[in-house]
Amino acid sequence: MKFKIGYFYPEQLNLYGDNGNVEILVYRAKKRGIDVEVALVDLGTNLEENRFNLVFMGGGPDSSQKEVYEDLLKDKGPYLKDYINSGGFGLYICGAYQLLGKYYKSADGSILEGLGVFDLYTEHFGNKKPRCIGNVVCELSDEFRHKEVFNSLNKIGSTLVGFENHGGRTYLGEKMLPLGKVITGYGNNSEDGYEGVLYKNSIGTYLHGPVLSKNPHLADYLIAGSLGLDRLESLDDSLILSAHIASKKLRQ
Ligand code: GLN
């Protein structure tokens, strides 16, 4: 068995150490004796040959989003849309999360068309609204917590912790499920109390950190789920668990 991770736009979409998520997935998979390959997918990559178990895209400032969004729409888009709609596993952080929605209105008012695979849109209000910056704690949605794979692996609980830094505010379409409910922080838009999106086996979230560093339950869910496994050998996560618990007490 090989765990093949497609890391999209690593040069442009890799903010606040988001590439650490890929390192964590690789580390935790290798600890279980799983053979891992990370395929870097960049502007010039031809995707026809690639078949991934998991796709990862990180955050990026508006300028980086502008660099990649046309390639995402025209070149990688059809593949990625099909991958996500047919249940492919994926983790999409902040700038990437925004680009998978219908559109992103950036800080300077220009509109970047999104892939539209998630029914949501994002608007940056420039100086009219403050950036959403700080520590985040959220309670995972029932839909996520009840996923069988997650349940069988989860030893951390029902929270996710991380750090957010975004100007864009994301609004989910009526039928879209959020990933969780904000306990501390701004989340999607600082108004409706939701954080992220859960669409089939894809997760969009504003959490950096990198998010998988303090949320091993999410990391293992992604590894096991994307490989079709219902169990993984447990690792000594005592240190990470302490970090997770300590993070829950951090102020915004
Ligand atoms: N440029 C986007 C925003 O500020 C995304 C930032 C990010 O990926 N952290 O909303």
Automatic annotation (TrEMBL):
GO biological process: cell wall organization; cobalamin biosynthetic process; peptidoglycan biosynthetic process; regulation of cell shape
Catalytic activity: beta-D-GlcNAc-(1->4)-Mur2Ac(oyl-L-Ala-gamma-D-Glu-L-Lys-D-Ala-D-Ala)-di-trans,octa-cis-undecaprenyl diphosphate + L-glutamine + ATP + H2O = beta-D-GlcNAc-(1->4)-Mur2Ac(oyl-L-Ala-D-isoglutaminyl-L-Lys-D-Ala-D-Ala)-di-trans,octa-cis-undecaprenyl diphosphate + L-glutamate + ADP + phosphate + H(+); L-glutamine + H2O = L-glutamate + NH4(+)
Ranges where the CobB/CobQ-like glutamine amidotransferase domain occurs: 4-215
Gene Ontology MF: a single term: glutaminase activity
Pathway where it operates: Cell wall biogenesis; peptidoglycan biosynthesis
Family: Belongs to the CobB/CobQ family. GatD subfamily.
Job description of the protein: The lipid II isoglutaminyl synthase complex catalyzes the formation of alpha-D-isoglutamine in the cell wall lipid II stem peptide. The GatD subunit catalyzes the hydrolysis of glutamine to glutamate and ammonia. The resulting ammonia molecule is channeled to the active site of MurT.
Annotated positions binding substrate: 131
Keywords of the record: Cell shape, Cell wall biogenesis/degradation, Glutamine amidotransferase, Hydrolase, Ligase, Peptidoglycan synthesis
Tree of life domain: Bacteria
Record bears the keyword Cell wall biogenesis/degradation: yes
Quaternary structure (record): Forms a heterodimer with MurT.
Protein name: Lipid II isoglutaminyl synthase (glutamine-hydrolyzing) subunit GatD
Signal peptide: none
EC numbers: 6.3.5.13, 3.5.1.2
Positions of the catalytic residues: 94, 208
